[in-house]
Amino acid sequence: MLICACAIMALNGMATDTQTVMEPLSPALIRVAMCQFEIIDGDIAENMKRAQTFVRKAAARGAKLVCLPEAADWGWLYEHARRDAFPIPGAYTDMLANLAKELNVWICAGCLERDGDKTYNSAVLIDKQGNIVLKHRKINTLKFLTEHLYDEGDPTQLSIVDTEFGRIGITICADNFNLEIPKKIADHGAWLLLAPHGFAAEVENLRNNAKEFQEHIKRVAKHTNMWVVGTNTCRGPIASGAWKGRPHSGCSTLARPDGSAVAVAKFNTPEIIVLDIPTNR
């Protein structure tokens, strides 16, 4: 099994290449990027700018599938989520769709979603033609934190899609605390799970939170026998609510189906990890 990994470091939300040459892809591989960056609660203009910067950097490294964190538009505990969330499609996903088409890449991103009188913590998968081919609404929303912000997704809706890379699924963060949710996706033939996250903790517990995050992603992979791309947020202290002031831990993790980690991003530091992984084609 061939696995090629390289990292693109990023400081203050801007990525900087540390390696400039990557070998051409074998047809049996897909080049995946985890874009770990700081999301500023409520600053949609800056967050859109950062998403574009990181996707462009990942595409320049040859990535064909780019995964961003949870709620990468507004922040997952943004206090005005119900007021400000865009529809899907809408301003944020339109921006990503145009970027995907321009760069010839697939993009998975977490984003808040307004649908009529409902608001959801959602994630989309956009193909390289700029089409939204899959949307997942977070099922386990941690209601004690978010009931006033958004609604729960339908647990009967299975978030999978057939792609040129094979069958892919999406879950969001705490969805994976109940291992039966990603297991249902695996049971329907998915080999790869895209999982935007937003793990956060008190400053004094942040390193333990990062370790817990890595173990969490590895546990999901082992239980489901899928590759799992767990892209986490870093920095960005939560701006309001019960968890105000808590930063995010980073350490985005890509895990093999046997539950071992292929790569882990830096602790609490913006970074892009680019890896070649085998597909099931």
What does this structure look like?
The protein is an alpha+beta fold. The chain has a single domain, classed as Nitrilase/N-carbamoyl-D-aminoacid amidohydrolase (4-Layer Sandwich), CATH 3.60.110. It contains six helices and 16 strands. It has helices at 44-60, 81-84, 91-103, 143-146, 180-187, 206-224, and strands spanning 4-11, 14-17, 29-36, 65-67, 106-115, 118-126, 132-137, 160-163, 166-170, 192-196, 227-231, 234-235, 248-249, 253-255, 261-264, 271-278. It has an eight-stranded mixed β-sheet. It is globular. 50% of the residues are buried. Residues 1-24 have low confidence and may be disordered.
Which helices and strands occur, and which strands form pairs?
Elements: E1 4-11, E2 14-17, E3 29-36, H1 44-60, E4 65-67, H2 81-84, H3 91-103, E5 106-115, E6 118-126, E7 132-137, H4 143-146, E8 160-163, E9 166-170, H5 180-187, E10 192-196, H6 206-224, E11 227-231, E12 234-235, E13 248-249, E14 253-255, E15 261-264, E16 271-278
Helix pairs in contact: 1-3
Order of SSEs, N→C?
A: EEEHEHHEEEHEEHEHEEEEEE
Note the overall shape: globular
CATH architectural group: 4-Layer Sandwich
CATH topology: Nitrilase/N-carbamoyl-D-aminoacid amidohydrolase
Count of DSSP-assigned helices: 6
Any idea how many domains? Answer: 1
> Which CATH class is shown?
Alpha Beta
Poorly predicted runs are 1-24
Instruction: Sketch the major β-sheet.
Output: 8 strands, mixed
Structural class: alpha+beta
CATH homology superfamily name? Carbon-nitrogen hydrolase
Distance between the termini: 14 Å
Task: Compute the average pLDDT.
Answer: 91
